[in-house]
Specification:
Length: 336
């Protein structure tokens, strides 16, 4: 969905000049249209999971969470993305995607950028080369072409069934936005892997940890998921999770996504949902398989709850947002 309109920045203007050399018929838009990050292509679903703490899922009060004044997290990882339509060619959208990711560490209660891996920012042009005759020869030689500081990413490649996407502009735009989303995930995974390889301190990751095998198996990585497109509960277990009170977690279960690594997980209520939506203040935590998982879940839950202060205002997601993650986002907006 288009959400805002503004003129392209210097990088965007440079990309347009590059394209106009090869595509003289490019129609440049008065202002670059920004596009929301893509929603998951999966329908909201309930999915059962294997309970590993007891025989049935139940609500568990996190011990001593009210008295926990400090957190064991040493750093925070998050990424951002921006998708802009800067022009059209015969109705085909010309998309510029900017992705970034960073690890921010806490030193003497101040946030600073991790020195071993600098923040990563990448800008690419996303085009369906199959439907651009002037670029067809380039596309046949290399689906991704390095041109100066820009890389052209082909969004018209065949899917697993060998089928090419429709030439419908909305289909091509969706292809581009999902490709940008995947690029952001790659940047985040690279930084997470670098952090876990050094094993300096527990890392709070905004999102899941199962995409990377090395991250999913690291005791340093803790993933905190704020959205719940998939709920890993059914029947009575769903009622229990939605009814969690502030400071309660669910029993631990195992999440084993297809083509991803298995991790341990549980739901945690950060703030009371009284008078609000049932998912208000609810997060799902992921960690690597470990000994004494109950003790680990209680410890990590206390840390995650400790990160809810100070409030991440004025962010609209303050009910689930850790202040350290918001710091990452603010930092990345300033440099990308």
């Amino acid at each position: 969905m288009l959400v805002s309109k503004s003129g392209p920045d210097a990088a965007g203007r440079a990309a347009l000049r590059l394209l106009m050399e090869r595509l003289p018929g490019v129609s440049v838009m008065d202002g670059a249209m920004s596009v929301e990050p893509p929603a998951s292509s999966d329908f909201p679903i309930l999915r059962s999971a294997t309970i590993i703490e007891g025989t049935a899922l139940r609500a568990i009060r996190v011990p001593d969470y009210a008295a926990q004044a400090t957190s064991g997290f040493g750093a925070f990882l998050d990424g951002t993305q921006k998708v802009q339509i800067v022009g059209h060619y015969d109705g085909t959208p010309i998309v510029i995607g900017t992705v970034s990711a960073a690890v921010r560490i806490r030193v003497n209660r101040r946030m600073t950028t991790w020195g071993h891996q600098p923040p990563r920012v990448e800008r690419k042009i996303y085009l369906p080369l199959r439907y651009l005759p002037a670029l067809a020869e380039i596309g046949e030689v290399r689906p991704e072409l390095k041109q100066g500081d820009w890389q052209i990413v082909d969004t018209s490649t065949a899917d697993r069934n060998g089928e090419y996407p429709s030439q419908h502009p909305a289909v091509l735009l969706e292809r581009a936005t999902r490709a940008v989303d995947q690029q952001r995930e790659q940047l985040e995974d690279g930084l997470a892997e670098a952090w876990c390889a050094r094993g300096e301190a527990p890392l709070y990751i905004d999102g899941g940890i199962s995409r990377s095998a090395s991250v999913a198996s690291s005791s340093c990585a803790v993933g905190v998921i704020k959205s719940h497109r998939t709920l890993y509960v059914e029947g009575d277990a769903l009622r229990i999770v939605l009814g969690l009170r502030s400071g309660e977690r669910s029993s631990i279960f195992r999440v084993s996504p297809r083509s991803r690594s298995s991790v341990l997980s549980w739901y945690l209520r950060l703030r009371s949902a009284d008078g609000r939506d049932a998912l208000w203040g609810l997060v799902r935590v992921e960690v690597a398989e470990c000994d004494r998982p109950s003790e680990r879940a209680d410890e990590i839950s206390r840390w995650v709850m400790a990160e809810t202060t100070p409030l991440s205002l004025p962010d609209g997601r303050w009910d689930k947002m850790a202040y350290g993650v918001r710091d990452c986002e603010e930092f990345l907006r300033a440099i990308s």
